[in-house]
Amino acid sequence: MNPQSDEFSFIINLPVRNEWRNVDLLRTSVQNCFTAVFADLDGCHAVSMVTGELLENALKYGDWRAADPATVFRLRVVGGKGKVDVSVQNPIANELGGAGKLLQTLEWIASYPSAEAAYRARMLQIAQSEDPMEPSQLGLVRIAYEGNCALRASVDGAILTITATLEL
To answer: CA-to-CA distance for 121 and 141, rounded, in angstroms?
Structure first.
């Protein structure tokens, strides 16, 4: 994903309303912005896929009961020097309980020798599941594998930030 100049940086930093329609709007916006600048369409697709998956996770698992989405639901896409960080921030129920499953999933992914191995293992678990209504829990491992990126998370009080770093 090399732009015409080797020296570049960019930032998208937006407060987001916690509405499902905004996931596709932002995914498409990020895709269009990157496509306008970079020639590597696969890299552009990866950044937009990661953006959409992280936003979906935030909406599904965030605690929206008392939070003001304008201050705590945020998308940041920052890039330069061969990498892009896509971060999504959202409210959680409490410091440990709200982020516990996500942190366990990140540890589970890291326990495999590669993101591809974790992805294959999760797909096998899904195929062997006896409960067809069980949630797939595929989003984070899909981000790691298909987005070819490293994932990390941090918790600050009742705010969770998850960041995917894509090497370009």
So the answer is: 10
- Alpha carbons 142 and 104: distance in angstroms, whole number: 15
Lay out the sheet containing 83-91: strands in order across: 9-15, 74-80, 83-91, 159-167, 149-156
Q: In angstroms, rounded to a whole number, what is the distance separating the alpha carbons of residues 49 and 28? A: 9
Count, residues in the chain: 168
Question: Coil, helix or strand for 61?
Answer: helix
Indicate the Cα dihedral angle 165, 105, 158, 63, nearest 10°: 110
Task: For residue range 90-131, list pLDDT tens digits in order.
Answer: 998 864 566 888 899 999 999 999 999 999 999 999 888 888
Count Cβ atoms below 10 Å from residue 165 Cβ, excluding itself: 17
CA–CA separation, 144 and 165 (whole Å) = 9
Please give the model's pTM, rounded to 2 decimal places.
0.88
Query: Measured between alpha carbons, how far is 89 from 67 in angstroms, rounded to an integer?
Result: 12
Amino acid at residue number 78:
V
- pLDDT tens digits, residue range 16-62? 888 999 999 999 999 999 888 888 889 899 999 999 999 999 998 88
Query: Among 84, 88, 59, which residue's Cα sits nearest to residue 76?
Result: 88
In angstroms, how far is the first alpha carbon of the chain from the final one? 6
